[in-house]
Amino acid sequence: MLLTSALLALSLVMPQGTNPAATPGGGPQGAKPLMVGGRAVPVRFPAAADPGVPNDVQEWEGWGGLKGSFSTPFFQAGDWTKLQSLAAAKGDSPLPAARVKFVVLGRVDPLERDASGLLRPLPMSLFAPQVTETNESIARLSATLPAVTGGNLTIESSVTVEDEPLRAAPGQSIADVVGAYLAPRINGGEYQAEDRVYRGPFDMVVVVAPYGRTQPFIVNGTPVHVVPYYAAGGTATEGALDAALVSTIVSELAAPARPGAVLAETPLRTQLQKGSGISVTPGAFGEVLQPSFRSSNFKVSVDTNNERGKVLTVAEVGVGRNGGVGLPLPVGGLDLNAKPNLTFYVRTTSLDPLAVRISDGAKAAWASLGRDRVHPAAMGQPVAELPLNRDGAWQQITVDLKGLATQAGLSKIDTLALEIPPASRMLNRMQGQPIQYQFDDFELTSQPPTTALPPRAANAASTDPEERALAVMELAKAGTASAELVKFLKDPSDFVRLQTANAYRTIVDPAAEAALIENTNSLDPVVAEAALRALANQKTETALAAIRRSLKYGVTERSRAIAAHLLAETKDPKLAGDIMILITNRNWQTRLAAVEAIGKLPGPEAGIIGLAFIQQADPEIKLAATRLADPTREYDMRKVLWSAVNEPSDAVRALSLIKLMQSPTATFKAEGYKGVRDDSRFVRLQVLDWMAQNPDEAHRGALRLAVTDRSAAVRAQALRAFASLREPTTLDEITNVMSDQDSEVQLALIGLAKAKGLKLSAETLGAMRNSSDPRVVEASKSLG
């Protein structure tokens, strides 16, 4: 669990004595609220929860042979008093504040293809309560970071909440999607825009997403970390996200420099490079989170049932699926040789599954009550799916604990719990109302276990959408029109209709056209997209007319965006005007799709229409519009000339300068070469990288300027661009780098000397051979 990992990473889990509970809603004196979208988020600390097991639950007779000590595999909010005291006692930090950009993604919609070939939409969301919880955790960093680091690390937070869903196509990772989103929105260098909005450089970016474990990656010289909200304990435990955020920030800023990485220059990074360190105060988080038999989003009570008397009610509240309830273990543990099974009665009307989890502390296994949902990331987990009717009637279940433990390779069972099975934890819940199960008469027995459900198989008549979807796959394999396949376009399940519509992307069948058109009006944007793409494959006037209707009147924003792309693939330049209507759409991704679609159309008119989007506020749309600029057209160059000087986004400004450098007009080209003196180091680097990839003797004058840049990274890139030119480079052009002590500059100089046959001076060679960087010493040997 990411929450436990975060606590261990900070070495903060050891209790440090007893303190009175934190005051609910209290915050450090004088703490400034965090501003998010023009609203103030106050710094407040969670109130301590009661982790104890209620008496009536503990004494409930239905525990039978399980009666004993309760497992405590979950966390609840604990005592924040010590951390508040540490935060209040902090002095002035010797280090500049860490500038951290936070991006809160409200929804991520990956689409993956699993091993059976089925397309799987895997949406996960942060709803309003989760976004509020996230913002409050970020606001508390003004107290938690100084408390954890002895006062030497403070923070300046900037928060963006992205409400529109980010979509990941099959094969795209969360890093791909987040990287594309961030690239035009954060700057890697200093640039003072007229609107005075700070866009970078940042010390790091933290993206809080519903899901998405990934290794840190770099965008515009800025380390990016994705914190998966639910895996971090969000929803289940108030304050759990704090531990994950603190651990992420401290581990990044306290880590050694990445070899060869060109990171954004910030005041804090500069100090850290000089040897200043960040230390951690042991025990600061020790009492903030306390082990508990249940997570905060699970409620447990003993209620009266007309059929069975006193029964145990387990209710999962909130909108996310996370957490669970620990069950008691008998004194002396479980003797699975004598009584290998757990028997109990259960009833529910909830569609979302619950599971019995067993664990030895390192590994776990689950007995899912009913089918677990399907998620590619959960494939291969030791999950036994047991049949369960969801009609509210009592049903006896017997779990084969011994067999499950053997399957998972458990050395023992020291935790028994009710929680969400693995795949369901990674998906939005199936129903909006509280999820409730009732239990009775737990017993350890040797009676025959409930037979697990078999693996799903293709079955056109099944009540299980998964099995009907597999039947669709079998029909689609033939690759020919089929009356049976057409019927599935009217299936009640969006998932089944998705597979069916997708099959018609390679199958042409006039009999399917009407049902495909009907599916373009689906409220599920993934189904509508598949139907639109299938219609494009039919290549009829009726199908094309339906796609045009979706462009204008599509039920979802995604439908309109996909319609724009599909119409553009016809290569009819007259469609640019139709697609242009999306310029006023409120959804930035729809407007972006319009620009990209217009870019596919031939002819100068389409490019000019697409360039109109350069006036949009969203930098990703501006970037897409700038890509459409034709360097040979004066109109286009005048448009990008303004962006090259005034555009706040590094990415847009850099591309504008590159477009100008490609112009055949000398005045525009000269404006482009001014990019080697842009305020932002990362714009200068991108401009020089383009020069190196596109060598031209016209670059030489700009390179002579760039090689004198104050940034070592820029000087090194200028030398690499010199090396790409066809004509010789003289020592006079690069005199200032002959005594350069930066390792990257020295390596680039060695590369240039080898490429151009330059004879370096004895002093320069001596400095290289005495370098503290072994790469420079080794590379210099090739110069003789």
Concise summary:
The protein contains 28 helices and 25 strands. Helix content is 36%, strand content 17%.
Description of the molecule:
The protein is of the alpha+beta class and 784 residues long. 36% of the residues lie in helices and 17% in strands. A 5-stranded mixed β-sheet has the order 9-5-11-13-12, with helices on both faces. α11 packs parallel to α13, α13 packs antiparallel against α14 and α26 runs parallel beside α28. The longest helix has 21 residues. The radius of gyration is 31 Å and the shape is globular. It starts with a helix and ends with a helix. About 2% of the residues have low confidence.
Topology readout:
Elements: H1 2-9, E1 34-36, E2 39-41, H2 55-58, E3 68-70, E4 74-77, H3 81-89, E5 98-105, E6 107-113, E7 119-121, E8 124-125, H4 128-148, E9 155-162, E10 166-168, H5 174-182, E11 204-209, E12 217-219, E13 222-228, H6 240-253, H7 267-273, E14 289-292, E15 298-305, E16 309-316, E17 324-326, E18 328-330, E19 341-348, E20 354-359, E21 364-369, E22 383-386, E23 395-400, H8 401-408, E24 415-419, E25 435-445, H9 465-476, H10 483-487, H11 494-503, H12 513-519, H13 525-538, H14 541-553, H15 557-568, H16 576-579, H17 588-598, H18 604-611, H19 619-627, H20 634-646, H21 650-661, H22 666-673, H23 681-693, H24 700-706, H25 712-724, H26 743-756, H27 762-769, H28 774-780
Parallel strand pairs: 5-9, 5-11, 6-10, 11-13, 21-22
Antiparallel strand pairs: 1-2, 3-18, 4-14, 6-7, 6-8, 12-13, 15-16, 16-25, 17-24, 19-23, 19-25, 20-21, 20-24
